[in-house]
Amino acid sequence: MVATSFDYQKATSVEQAISLLQSHDGDAKLLAGGHSLIPTMKLRLNSPALLIDVSKIEELRGIREEDGHIVIGAMTTHYEIASSDLLAKKAPMFVEAAKVIGDIQVRNKGTIGGSLAHADPAADWPAVVIASGAKIKIHGPDGARTVDADDFFTGFYTTAVGENDVLTSIHVPVPPKGSKSTYAKFPQPASRYALVGCAVQLTMDGNKVSDCSIGFTGVSDAAFRDSNAEAALKGKELSGESIQAAADACADGVDIMSDHFASEDYRKHLAGVFLKRALENLK
């Protein structure tokens, strides 16, 4: 199918992109990698009057360490994250997640900011930013603000990004000494989206887990942090017994999705399986 007619403008700054969004009163969309927006336009599920291309705004690109955080620009591609030595050393679950997104064409063009703003419930990045304790920076008409990743995903395809806002960067705290992280997922064979994806970051004090954070994607209508599974691990040795306890507790009290790919029971089962796999990877 072919999209309805639309105007196109390439923004040269975040301020210009915000101004263009405001001037079109909800009838404009930002174009990043385009892997989600363009197909919906072709199906006429989305028909903006204006596409605002933000792909060439330099301030939205790059990966750097700054003030105890790793800052990832919103327009940084999945491939650039997968290739980052800084992330491989200090936040390896970002590299692991990037390497299993889509295929090479998707990784070369798709962006972390576009994925987070789209908030597909089966996307990989939401679980990872939640488990990392990241803050997401958003610029809008009233200036900049940051939102904890835990609070960023507000529902099915909905986030804290407002109608006239631009997601500009992701700020990942450099994990303390003794930390390690990983990401494990069960991909849908055709799309490579996660039927279940699990990101885990642990901090060890000797042989015991002093802190941990666990993020899930693909399980519910929005990514979430699993505090029940975390509680089963904190203060414990990372053993077969504690890992099984965390798996048994995971996704409790969560409204689990059911669709033609996987039933509610199967998704809950997969959540436990892939949490166990992630934790075994960190032993």
Automatic annotation (TrEMBL):
> Can you give the residue ranges of the FAD-binding PCMH-type domain?
1-177
Which Pfam families does the entry mention? CO_deh_flav_C (PF03450), FAD_binding_5 (PF00941)
Q: What does the UniProt keyword field contain?
A: FAD, Flavoprotein, Oxidoreductase
* UniProt keyword Oxidoreductase present: yes
Organism field? Flavilitoribacter nigricans (strain ATCC 23147 / DSM 23189 / NBRC 102662 / NCIMB 1420 / SS-2)
Kindly give the SUPFAM superfamilies that the UniProt entry links to this protein. Answer: CO dehydrogenase flavoprotein C-terminal domain-like, FAD-binding/transporter-associated domain-like
Entry's Gene Ontology molecular function annotations: FAD binding; oxidoreductase activity
Tell whether Transcription regulation is among the UniProt keywords.
Answer: no
Q: What is this protein called?
A: Carbon monoxide dehydrogenase
